[in-house]
Amino acid sequence: MRARRHIDRHYEEELADLRRRILEMGGVVEKQIADAMRAMVERDSEAAKAIIQGDHKVNRLDVEIDEACLRLLALHQPIARDLRLITTVLKINADLERAGDLAQNICERTLELNQEPLLKPLIDLPRMAVMAQEMLRDCLNAFVNEDVDLALRVCHADDAVDAMLEQVFRELMSYVMEDPAAITRALRLIFVAKYLERVGDHATNIAEMVVFMVKGQSIRHLDEPPPSV
After folding, report:
1. What is the three-class DSSP state of 209?
2. Is residue 86 scored above 70 in pLDDT?
3. Are 143 and 92 in contact (CB under 8 A)?
4. Is the pLDDT of residue 197 over 50?
5. Is 54 helix (H, G, I), strand (E, B) or coil?
6. Residue 79 and residue 213: Cα distance in Å, rounded?
7. Helices 183-215 and 148-178, axial angle in degrees (round to 10)
8. Labelling 184: which of 63, 68, 145, 163 has CA 20 to 30 A away?
9. Which uninterrupted H or E stretch holds 151?
10. How would residue 88 be classed by pLDDT, with cut points 50, 70 and 90?
11. pLDDT computed for residue 7 by the predictor
12. Long-range pairs for 69-77: beta carbons < 8 A, 24 or more residues apart
């Protein structure tokens, strides 16, 4: 009986460590996005290069979390709620790793944009970045607290990010119509807006998985997520 209690306690500690690691990874990715946008706004090429070269921490956490999940699945053969937790962590891990890659993409576009004069003041893109960061933070808080209402609010918040993308696209196309020579710079800014919209999509994916983890109900591919309470 004592051995059984020891095994159960060790298992619970491993599950708690999974939650801790995914939060750590989320914090790193959120900071990457914030730093990438700061480098863009300040036209800081050295900072952008440093962010591109500093992706090793996210990659390390990605591998460690995947390995921990697979080990738990193999050794403990979890069922029901624990199985949903581990599969959710696997999904969150993949979405966070891809969001981190998008921060690198922003820095790559920054290096290209810094070779030419600024096309327009950067106002909407930093606002989009803040919205995407808040979505990431909220979906991870929803995961930790098993908060379905917060997860659903993240899903609904994605509409505002999508609307901002459309606004940025229309504005930048107006610059191109006035000056066709601006097309390259405009396209690079549109790419950045699209990267930020994708961060919001990854946060939404995580939020949907939180609902599945807590309720055992998939809301993916629904035309409209359920209303938040």
Report:
1. helix
2. yes
3. yes
4. yes
5. coil
6. 12
7. 170
8. 163
9. helix 148-178
10. very high
11. 55
12. 69/18, 69/93, 71/14, 72/11, 72/14, 72/15, 72/18, 76/11
Residue 183 has pLDDT above 70, yes or no: yes
User: 80-113 and 124-145 helices cross at what angle (nearest 10)?
Assistant: 160
Contact status, residue 139 vs residue 205, Cβ threshold 8 Å: no
Enumerate helices (H) and strands (E) in the chain, giving the number of each.
Answer: 7, 0
- What integer pLDDT is reported at residue 229 of this predicted model? 45
Spatial neighbors of 139 by CB under 8 A, at least 6 apart, are 150, 151, 154, 203, 204, 206, 207, 210
Instruction: Identify the structural domains of the chain with CATH numbers, from first to last.
Output: 2-215 (1.20.58.220)
Of the pLDDT bands very low, low, confident and very high (cuts 50, 70, 90), residue 126 is very high
Its pTM stands at 0.89
